[in-house]
Amino acid sequence: MTIPPIIAIYQSLGDFSSHSRLAIFQLLDDIRAQAPYLAMGSFSLGCLNVPIHLLLLLGAMMRSPCLMLPWLAVILLEHLVLTRLCSLTYNGLC
Does a structural domain hold residue 2? Predict the structure, then answer.
């Protein structure tokens, strides 16, 4: 007796969902293992942002673009790095 095609599709989807579930748990385990390094990176980024934002405030009060340029450079680098990390994480799930 042959299996109808629609049942074969559902069976293959069931196998895929269990495989995806295992991949997600593996990703969570990997993130949990790297949590101290991720926390240190987030803390360092926060500590870097404080003086950079003070430069932005001083530059706005004194109307000096020279004080705003370090803020702009650091913020652009942060966005580039964070966007790349997010895309790597997303592509790793696929």
Answer: no
Residue 3, domain member (yes or no)? no
* Token pair belonging to 36: 């101290």
What sign does the CA torsion over 86, 91, 92, 94 have? positive
Q: What percent of the chain stands above pLDDT 90?
A: 0
Alpha carbons 18 and 15: distance in angstroms, whole number: 5
Domain that holds residue 24: 8-93
| Distance of alpha carbon 13 from alpha carbon 71, whole angstroms | 49
The packing angle between helices 65-93 and 5-33, to 10°, is 140
Per-residue pLDDT tens over the stretch 4-50: 555 555 555 555 555 556 777 787 788 788 888 878 877 888 888 88
Q: 3-class SS at 63?
A: coil
Q: How many domains does the chain have?
A: 1
